[in-house]
Amino acid sequence: MKVTVDFEECLKDSPRFRAALEEVEGDVAELELKLDKLVKLCIAMIDTGKAFCVANKQFVNGIRDLAQYSSKDAVVETSLTKFSESLQEMINFHTILFDQTQRSIKAQLQTFVKEDLRKFKDAKKQFEKVSEEKENALVKNAQVQRNKQHEVEEATNILTATRKCFRHIALDYVLQINVLQSKRRSEILKSMLSFMYAHLAFFHQGYDLFSELGPYMKDLGAQLDRLAVDAAKEKRDMEQKHSTIQQKDFSSDDSQLEFDVDAASGIVMEGYLFKRASNAFKTWNRRKPDHIRRWFSIQNNQLVYQKKFKDNPTVVVEDLRLCTVKQCEDVERRFCFEVVSPTKSCILQADSEKLRQAWIKAVQTSIATAYREKGDETEKLDKKSSPSTGSLDSGNESKEKLLKGESALQQVQCIPGNASCCDCGLPDPRWASINLGITLCIECSGIHRSLGVHFSKVRSLTLDTWEPELLKLMCELGNDVMNRVYEAKIEKMGIKKPQPGQRQEKEAYIKAKYVEKKFVDKDSAFSSPLALVQSQEEKGSSSFKPALEDQVRTPSRSTVKSNDSGIQQCAEDTREGLSSVVSANSLYEPEGERRDSSVCLEYKHFHPGLQLYRASYEKKLPHMAEALAHGADVNWANPDENKATPLIQAVLGGSLVTCEFLLQNGANVNQRDIKGRGPLHHATVLGHTGQVCLFLKRGANQHATDEEGKDPLSIAVEAANADIVTLLRLARMNEEMRESEGLYGQPGDETYQDIFRDFSQMASNNPEKLNRFQQDSQKF
Questions:
Q1: Distance between CA atoms of 246 and 345, rounded to whole angstroms?
Q2: 3-state secondary structure of 544
Q3: Among the listed residues 76, 112, 133, the one whose alpha carbon sits nearest the alpha carbon of residue 190
Q4: CA gyration radius for the chain?
Q5: Three-state SS string across 490-530, please?
Q6: Domains in the chain, start-ordered, CATH in brackets?
Q7: From the centroid of its chain, how far is CA 359?
Q8: Cβ contact 92:102 at 8 Å
Q9: 315, containing H or E segment
């Protein structure tokens, strides 16, 4: 073994020994720096690798989701599933590699630094101390006078003892140096060799995995070549079919003249027909024919119609055996026929005489076929013996069930006016401004983004994930409502809305509309709920106006309910006439106690901030939007009511969607009143679990205390509200965990997110489940 520092020189304590020590100590210090740097780089590499594995795992989960979505295509599903499994194996191999790297580099080298180098430093300190003591003893021995025998003996004894101790410690120090110099070579090489073997195993595993996958990928490539040939052939066939159909004569509707009572689909005949209103006035809607033009079909011994394919069919005749059909010549329109049942009659209009005769014959044939079919006639006759309550109730229930299961795009587009872009009118918009509650085409959405998030927050209706409270907000407003605010003066000013494709005109128009607010009528207030109903009615039959006004102005004649947007919904006797004017918003607001809005406040007399303040409590989102358009400060504090803000009023009003609207428009979730209570305090006191969940997600400070020194958690504990205590404690634990791990700005772990996601869904879709605390309190 090569000796770094000679033991003999150590005993002599020669200059060569001191020089060797100085060189070794400098080398060890530099070695320690290099090893520390290498360990830190290894830790950074491992952390980055783990982050890569997490991102890669999310990507693999995306492939699995795509495979599940492609379940109808066996080739795509099988291929994506197989690829995702192989990529998951590679993620596992990566994880093993990082674990072995941590053991080989980080653990081994850290142990060497912490143990062996620490022993060296301890030996060095002892050596330096005894060296200093020996030097002092030599100096003292040299300075003693010869005539002082007692001092001579004492100095001699001290020098002898110090030399003996120095030799002992110096030899230990030299031994530690030589052992360290020998061991560092083996430790470094062992660590690196283990690291390289880990890489060798990783690449071998990856090579073996993809070697097994290779034949399948080769077969798939060959299959793709065949698919490309088949696709080209299908394209040619479709082009030929397109050309053949294009050459047909479309001047008549002969394609709809045929019917089949034995059709496999059960649909005997189907097509568009005009339907005359079944109210007392028996009118046709001349303004908007699409309001009365429906897709009719004869199926399952019933005559039904749909306005849109996604809607559940509305039954006109429940049992064809109990009805008759005849031509109608006593009406002002051509090609009409009447279907008469024991309880009602329905007058329909075809597009031509041939189509009318085809429909009459199809109904008559279906009636005859229905009599021949076997079935439980008694049950059907009993069901028909009681008068029908009308199709509005069942239609509304079916629509409500459908809306709950539809996508964000379908739910938002069914709101009045949302089927086209709010600013240019382009059909089928796929983007939305969440703080304005409007739908936009892709070009207008880009212009809105350029305005800044303080004016418009743009989100995709198909690509982004929608929180339930945000989806409810979109369904409470809509293009028609917001355009009555932001385009109130557009007709008076003689300005025309830009058309699709006019980019520069769109930019100027949108900036004037939302930033400069040039078209907002600041001299008049937003329409009252009554006016809103009337404006909706004008889109339908004008004959409804007197009856509808009479119903709204005279609540004693029928029961009146109000939904969250202030639109009146009349009772059973006028339900059919009102079916076209009731807002879709009623499908999204939970039932419960609501203020009677039949008498409307005149908001135009209020300061915009006060208008926003009162409308927030009354849950009137259109009035809130109007107040913001008129310049109301979303964080305005009422000096007459403890400096409460509109957001606090929304909490007191009990509406989750109102709070979401204010937050999306810049409301400060932590602004407190004069008593030191913010929105989170008030929601906790009132036991509004859904609002507590919303405020915590929006960054509410749960550590803030009121003038009594109470924070929201202590209030919830005193009130024994288990749901709110759970939410607050989870949020606090998540906050502490993120701070301890340095995850600032991160949402938290998956468990925390899942729990809050469940509470959000419950608060928006099943709020009655969160009312347990209030119900239990009322019992006592």
A1: 40
A2: helix
A3: 112
A4: 41
A5: CCCCCCCCCCCCCHHHHHHHHHHHHHCCCCCCCCCCCCCHH
A6: 7-233 (1.20.1270.60), 260-374 (2.30.29.30), 398-521 (1.10.220.150), 529-599 (no CATH)
A7: 48
A8: no
A9: strand 314-317
Cβ(174)–Cβ(9) below 8 Å? no
Query: Which amino acid belongs to residue 120?
Result: F
Residue 181 CB contacts under 8 Å (≥ 6 apart), including other chains: 4, 24
Burial category of 125 from C-beta neighbours within 10 Å (exposed 0-12, middle 13-18, buried 19 and up): exposed
- Please give the angle made by the CA atoms of 666, 668 and 674, to the nearest 5 degrees: 145
Residue 525 near residue 626, CB atoms below 8 Å: yes
- Between CA 375 and CA 535 the distance in angstroms is 48
Please report the sign of the dihedral spanned by the C-alpha atoms of residue 593, residue 598, residue 604, residue 605.
negative
- Distance, CA of 312 to CA of 329 (rounded, Å): 32
Residue 74 burial (CB count, 10 A): 9
- Helix-, strand-, coil-residue percentages of the chain, each rounded to 5: 60, 5, 30
Contacts of 157 (CB under 8 A, 6+ apart): none
For 608-665, the pLDDT digits (tens) are: 888 888 988 988 888 999 889 888 899 989 888 888 999 999 999 888 889 999 999 9
> Do 70 and 84 meet the contact criterion of CB atoms below 8 Å apart?
no
Instruction: Name the 3-class secondary structure at 275.
Output: strand
Q: Give, in degrees to the nearest 5, the angle at Cα 395 between 392 and 397.
A: 110
Write down the residue that tokens 């005279």 correspond to: 554
DSSP string, 639-684: TTTTTB-HHHHHHHHT-HHHHHHHHHTT--TT---TTS--HHHHHH
Contact 95, 53 (CB under 8 A): yes
Q: Which residues contact 425 (CB under 8 A, 6 or more apart)?
A: 497, 499, 500
Residues written for the chain: 780
Give tens-digit pLDDT for 697-749. 888 988 888 888 899 988 988 888 878 887 888 888 777 776 766 554 455 55
- CA–chain centroid gap for 25, Å, is 60
The two structure tokens encoding residue 264: 């496999």
